[in-house]
Fold this protein.
Amino acid sequence: MDLGEKCKLGQADSYQVCHKWLKDRKGRALSLDEIRTYCCVITALARTIVIQTQIDALYPAIKQPIIKTQVQVK
């Protein structure tokens, strides 16, 4: 799933942030402030997904030396 799809779903892990936010406001028009807030939520979610992807890519390289060090100490 690419970044656009994840943002469209509005998922942070399995929690559907955007869906919940919109569901709480169902049946009424959004104010300009609410629209701005929603845009901020989407932006924060997109940035979080990018950062999480970068962390996931780096983690295996960092994990191996730590595990070797811990095994040698014991």
Notes: The chain has one domain: 3-73. The mean pLDDT is 79. Residues 68 and 74 are 10 Å apart (CA to CA).
